[in-house]
Amino acid sequence: MARVVFDNIRKEYEDEKRGNFTAVAGSSFTIEDKEFVVFVGPSGCGKTTSLRMIAGLEKQTSGDIMIGDRIVNHLHPKDRDIAMVFQDYALYPHMTIRENLSFGLKNLKRPTAEIEQKVGAASAILGLDDMLERKPRELSGGQRQRVAVGRAIVRDPQVFLFDEPLSNLDAKLRIQMRVELSELHKRLGATIVYVTHDQVEAMTLGERIVVMNKGVIQQIAPPTELYNNPSNMFVAGFIGSPAMNFIDAVIEGGKAVVGGGRSFDLPAHVVQGLRAYEGKPVVLGIRPEHIFGEDFALHVPHDHKLAAAVQVIENLGSENLVYFRVGERTVTAKVHPETSATIGQLKTFVLDLSKAHFFDPASEERIL
Ligand code: ATP
C-alpha cells in the first residue's frame, strides 16, 4: 500500500526578516494508494515545501508523515522509496539518455540484466527507444521531460513526486505532456503527488486536488467538486478561468440588492437558504460561463436580465470575453463568439442564477 499520510504537519522556517515563518500550518490528509493528487495554489502557499517534506528533502517542524505503512519522519530521502521529477529535469548533460536512465540503478549496484530490462521498459513506455544514444542537448524540451520521468520510472518507487514538471515547456507541449502523464498514471497504477500553480493543469490531471493558500489547506476534493462546490471565496476565485465574478449584495425581501439600485430576483431555494441573511450583506459569485448575451441565452433556468455598458471585449476565437460593470465591480461574461457586442453599447446580459453561489463577506465561507 503506497498511501501517503500527513498528520498535522507544520513547517516553520527561521527567516531573518519574517522571524519564525510558518510555511505549512498544520496539514492533515491521506493520499490513497494509486491516487493522482495535485497540490495547487499561488506562489508561496507551501506546496513545494509539502512535496519536499514527503521526499525527505525538507524536515517538518512537527507532525508525522507516513509512506505505505511506515512513518518516514527520520528516514533519509533515498530510503523513502520515492522518486522525484523536478522542474529543470536535472539530467546529466555529459551522459547519453541510456546512461541517464541507468545511473540511479547502477548506483544501487543492481545487476546489469535488471538495469537493461528496466531501462528498456521505461523507454518503450515513454517512446524514447530511438534516442537512447543521444545526449540531453540533442533532445527537445518535451523529450528531456520524458527522460526525467523515465529516470523516476526505472526506480519503480512506491510514490512519484512531481514538482512543476511542465513549467519549462511551451503551451502546446504542456498540453501534450499533460495527456501523456495521465496515461502514464493509468498504465503504472502508481501513487502520484504533483505540484503546480496552474489550476488548469491541476483540474485536468488530479483525481483529487489539494488547494492551498498561505500554508493552509483550503479544500481537498475532486476537480468537479471544487468547481461546483467551492468551500470558500479563495477556492471559488482560484479554480476556473476566467475567475468567478464576485458581486457585493444585500439580501432584502428575497432579492439580492446590488450597486446602482439594481436588485436580482433569486430562485426559491436561494431565498430559503439565505433567510438568516435578511438585511445583511453577502457576496454573490457567478462564473463567466453562466452569463450569456441575450441573443444566445437559450435554456437558462433561473435567468436574470441585466443591462450594462460593455467596457472591453476579448475575442478568443471559440468564445468572447465581455467585461461590464456592476456597482464597483467589473464583471466578466464568457459568451458565444457570435454574440453581438460593441464597446460602450448598453447590452442585456442574462445571468443563470441557478448556478450562482453566495458567500459570507466576513468569513469568506460559502453559504450556498
Ligand atoms: P512557488 O509556486 O513559488 O514555488 P510554493 O507554494 O511552492 O511556491 P514554497 O516553496 O513551499 O511555496 O514556500 C512556502 C513559503 O515558505 C514561502 O513564503 C517561501 O518564501 C518560504 N520558504 C521556502 N523555503 C524557505 C527557506 N529555505 N527559508 C525560509 N523560507 C522559505
UniProtKB/TrEMBL annotation:
It comes from the Bacteria. NCBIfam families: PRK11650.1 (NF008653). The lineage of its organism: Bacteria, Bacillati, Bacillota, Bacilli, Bacillales. Keywords: ATP-binding, Nucleotide-binding, Transport. InterPro entries: AAA+_ATPase, ABC_transporter-like_ATP-bd, ABC_transporter-like_CS, ABC_transpr_MalK-like, ABC_transpr_MalK/UgpC-like, Mo/tungstate-bd_C_term_dom, NA-bd_OB-fold, OB_MalK-like. Residues 4-239 form the ABC transporter domain. One of its GO terms (molecular function) is ATP binding. This is Sn-glycerol-3-phosphate ABC transporter ATP-binding protein UgpC.
